[in-house]
Amino acid sequence: MPRPTLSTKIPPEIVPTYFEKLEYGDPADHFPPLGEIIAESAKKYPSDIAIIDENGNTHTFTKVYENARRLAGGLLKTGCKAGDRIDICMPSRVEWVEAFFAAFMVGVVVPADDWVATDISSYIIKHSGATHVVCLAAKAKELRGVVPGNVQFITVDAKVDGALFYPDLVAKPLDKDTEAKLEKIGKAMKPRDLAFILYTSGTTGMPKGAMLSHANIAYNATESARYLEMSRAKGDRLHCAPPFSHCFGNVFGISSSWISGIPLAIGGKFDPKHAVEQISQLKLTITYGTPTQFRKMLPFFEDPKIYPKKLLRTGIMAGEPCPPALVEKMMKLGCDIRVIYGLTEASPGTNATRSTDPPEKKWTVGRAYRGTVVRIEDPVDEFPMQPGKEGEVVIYGPGVMMGYYNEPQKTADVTSKLGGLKTGDVGYMDENGYLVISGRIKNILNRGGIKLYPVTIESRMMQVFSDKIEMVAIVGAKDATYGEEVAAVVKLKAGVKMTPQEFVDLCFAHSQGEKPLLSHEEVPRYAFIDTMDIPVSGRNKVLKHDLTKAVDERIKSTGMKKVKPSAL
């Protein structure tokens, strides 16, 4: 039997009764390549504001598009060929948007985090085969000598010997020959062609390059904007806290706002107070962020001196588990926050809560996007699980990636028998398709044969102890009796004091009564209160592998004993 391959086609036999069809059919037959989509918005909204940069300067659709065209022409003149990879490795700024669009016009975008270690940055350039790198001067100096000598650097902020200078490339209009070359390349592009190689952060080893097509991105950006009811008529203006190097920033942020014809405000390096001040001063109506970013912004949203009016209409919270209590607090501020579930490999959104959802469903990650099927399957046999039963979340539909670049085995590892994307996430759905994420298959904790989900425990703790806890991470500590025991690494809020015994007793109290929040097995027996750092990746994901190792070493080196609830 031939090995299955990832596909954007949905097997008819798995389509549920609540499936929402796309009125336009297959996105690859409906949407043109991204270069044409970018040009279309520039024609529709020429003099309107497209970007408000970190200094408050405005940039029209025409200006951004024209600079992107000039940069694309400059790339061609410096040896770039159709299909070449363009690495963008710098903080979010207007030049990032222009370089993003320019790369779509001639080749393939390779977005990269600018803050990662040199070995990661150089690996992405080498592995993707990037011919050009658009970056700040400091990054060019850092990477020269550790990447192939034929890689051409383009610096944005200052000149560097041997590098091209961005302002010089966009200073002059294109000549006729270059215009003709761009037109020829554009006409040859197809919606199913590779547009994007976005390297997923991962928590171990080197990142993998998820390949996304023009149709993948156009579909996801359009549908995400639709769920937010993004509208020029409503006077919408978007604030995007996540960096443009992430799918969250470049698909939900840049692409959705450009397609919708609304302004996108860039805040520079994330600062919670500055972000809320920017929302107030610029009268922004939509905001994006991870729960961590919203948690940091919340005190400033609640300060009437900084945020005097309820300006925000809606927004997206995604990127990590979203505590219901945090969502509710944003709702009380008048912001109809939507929780979105997804992953880079799915372009990225697959599920979203809607404004029409009943209140009891607000704590889920909503139902599948139109045109997408999300199925819960047995992680081993891949048969469908019944409503309410946990299994692996598998994605089918137009957002599914083309595969991992030059990684056939890793692509096969995430491909289901029916051609779906195996996410590695554990979850369950109700009979109406509302999805709840329980955790990661690799992070499931096995306590004496009972499967526990750290993400679920963390979410419930943050819901109940939000006035005391800034952050909590649950891992499995080695245990001679149970194999693994629940260990909690806790960061308290400023001014709060608590001992490990008090924390365990508090958790135990919430495992009692008619509607316990935690099961008896989920009550931690090891508690590290403000005594250990919680390591996170550049994308705010807790590095559970590193934390588990650190917890085991601490227990072993100190002879630490388990904490028994005082009531037992």
Describe this structure in words.
This protein has 568 residues and is α/β, with parallel strands linked by helices. Among the domains are: 61-190, Rossmann fold; 444-558, ANL, C-terminal domain (GMP Synthetase, Chain A, domain 3). 32% of the residues lie in helices and 22% in strands. It contains 17 helices and 26 strands. Strands 2-1-11-10-12-13-14-15-16 form a 9-stranded mixed β-sheet, with helices on both faces. It has a 5-stranded parallel β-sheet with strand order 4-3-5-6-7, with helices on both faces. Strand 10, helix 10 and strand 11 (264-265) form a beta-alpha-beta unit. Helix 9 packs across helix 10 (247-260) and helix 11 (272-282) crosses helix 12. The longest helix has 17 residues, at 61-77. It is globular and about 80 Å long. The model has no long low-confidence stretch (mean pLDDT 95).
Spans of at least 5 consecutive residues with low confidence:
none
Q: Which of globular, elongated, flat, extended, rod-shaped describes the shape?
A: globular
Helical run tally: 17
- What structural class results from the helix and strand content? alpha/beta
The CATH architecture classification of the domain at 61-190 is: 3-Layer(aba) Sandwich
Helix content: 25-40%
**Highest CATH level, the class of the domain at 61-190:** Alpha Beta
What is the end-to-end distance? 56 Å
The name CATH uses for the topology of the domain at 61-190 is Rossmann fold
**How much is the average pLDDT?**
95
Strand order across the biggest sheet?
2-1-11-10-12-13-14-15-16
Number of DSSP-assigned strands: 26
Computed over alpha carbons, the radius of gyration is 24 Å
What's the main sheet like?
A: 9 strands, mixed
Beta-strand percentage?
15-25%
